[in-house]
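Subject: for your reference before the review

Hello V.,

The reviewers asked for a structural picture of the protein, and I figured it would be easier to keep everything in one thread rather than splitting it across files. Below is the amino acid sequence we used in the manuscript, unchanged from the supplementary table.
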Amino acid sequence: MRKIKLTRAEKSIEESLEQFVSVDKNEYEQIVQAIASRRKDAVLNIRVNRNDLKNIKQKAHKLGIKYQTFISEILHRVAEV
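And here is what came back from the structure prediction:
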């Protein structure tokens, strides 16, 4: 299985969670598989309305996430319906 590269913030979260959450090996593997299934492995280039993009960036900023992550999550939710 490929090792997932984590950012510093993600590593910090993972380290703090390891202190509080214990899971058995089977459950851990399920979590790893769930994360792997959400891996972003395709590139999408689209043109959007400037005002729409500005609004998306503002909403993402309010949520404290990057706007590309926000767009990706929106697309994922729509695709899952």
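For the response letter, the relevant points are probably these. Residues 19 and 57 are 34 Å apart (CA to CA). The longest helix spans residues 50-63.

Happy to draft the paragraph if you're swamped.

O.
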